[in-house]
Write a structure and sequence with these properties.
six-stranded mixed sheet; alpha+beta; 2 domains; 18 strands
């Protein structure tokens, strides 16, 4: 039974594109062709470096990629590259200089003969997020005015806390509680929670694996947050950031996203969606008609708030003005209490304000000062 006295509950999700520091390659607008090429190369090099032996074509491919990104040029400063290699123990390679006539020529020579010869990893180079952009992310959050917010692409928990205490407080939009668990992605794009209500528990799914290949399911994580509402009931929020569409092999990306959607549906089977207050929120990196998302979007008793007749207008949430890739999916128990819903797009920059239909905040002047390349989705319920 519903309580005699109803309370308003506003929920939201927002991909903030990091808060203070972000990999340089991600700063390229959207995920450009250049960014996709760099990330593909990084992925390829990481895979090559896991090989037991670097002989033959493996070694040649490693050297070719190092040359491509000018690791043989000592005049190229590390901050001008997209990534660097941390060599903690042993060395992966060295640069030899050979004299050719009156000139010297740099050559890369692998020192390690395989993965066991050295300890280290690739790391994307980061740069500071534009301070105005960080403030504009706070303006989006202030405008949404949520009681509980799923915040996607956050560096770490200390960053989330600092953003809340410093930036959101400046805009009188801070929260009482925040939580983030480091996920599987080493690039600092994790899923955080900001809440006005106490957080009772959290369950991580970073170790969930597929049945046959035993490969990790979630690119980041699917943290299950249990939030204590003022009347003592629990609100469950499952935060998600599915596999990107922007780089890699599309078929593999789709398969990964499908696996993630299926797993979230499995997790939902523990709940009674007709009675429990459950939310699945985040950036799913796919449209409502995409096949990989179908298992999740067709879960019985689960509803997309943007499909409600209360939502008027287009449902796009991404900077291209065409795709909905950000979602608030709610259990039937919540959906029947839905009172209002919307998309906060004023943090996005567009030269024509999307034909004059969707103006941005005055402080958003270009791509570097926009809050994010995602809009925020919010919904208010009377529970």
């Amino acid at each position: 039974m519903r309580p005699e006295v109803l309370m308003p509950l506003r929920l939201a999700t927002f991909n903030a594109n990091n808060l203070f520091r972000r990999p340089k390659v991600f700063q390229l607008e959207g995920l450009s062709a250049q960014a996709a090429k760099v990330l593909n190369d990084v992925q390829k090099l990481e895979q090559l470096l896991t090989k037991t032996s670097y002989s033959g074509s493996t070694g040649t491919a490693i050297v070719d990629l190092l040359k491509k990104y000018e690791f043989d040029n000592s005049r190229v400063f590390p901050e001008n590259r997209w990534f660097h290699i941390n060599e903690v123990r042993g060395k992966l390679f060295r640069v030899k200089r050979a004299r050719v006539g009156t000139n010297s020529k740099a050559e890369i020579e692998l020192v390690a003969t395989g993965r066991s010869d050295w300890m280290g990893w690739l790391e994307l180079i980061r740069e500071n997020v534009n301070a105005v952009s960080t403030d504009n992310a706070a303006r989006v959050i202030q405008a949404v005015n949520a009681d509980v917010l799923c915040l996607v692409e956050v560096e770490d928990r200390h960053t989330l806390d600092r953003f809340d205490r410093m930036t959101l407080k400046k805009f009188k939009a801070s929260f009482r509680h925040n939580l983030l668990i480091d996920g599987n992605d080493p690039r600092g794009i994790d899923i955080g929670l900001l809440s006005q209500f106490p957080i009772r528990s959290v369950r991580s799914h970073i170790d969930d694996v597929t049945a046959i290949k035993k490969s990790t399911i979630f690119s980041r994580d699917c943290p299950e947050f249990e939030i204590e509402l003022p009347d003592g009931r629990s609100l469950w929020l499952l935060g998600n950031h599915f596999k990107s569409q922007g780089y890699g092999v599309q078929a593999a990306n789709d398969a990964k996203r499908l696996s993630q959607a299926k797993r979230v549906r499995e997790l939902l089977s523990r709940f009674d969606l007709t009675r429990d207050l459950v939310v699945v929120a985040g950036d799913f990196n796919g449209s409502p008609t995409s096949a990989p998302l179908k298992p999740l979007l067709t879960t019985p008793g689960l509803f997309d708030v943007l499909k409600s007749p209360l939502h008027q207008g287009p449902s796009w949430t991404y900077h291209d003005g065409r795709q909905q890739i950000d979602y608030l999916l709610v259990s039937q128990a919540l959906f029947v209490t839905l009172g209002s819903v919307g998309i906060e797009r004023r943090g996005l920059f567009h030269k024509t304000n999307f034909g004059g239909k969707f103006p941005h905040f005055p402080e958003v002047t270009d791509e570097t000062t926009q809050a994010s390349d995602h809009a925020a989705v919010w919904a208010e319920f009377q529970i």
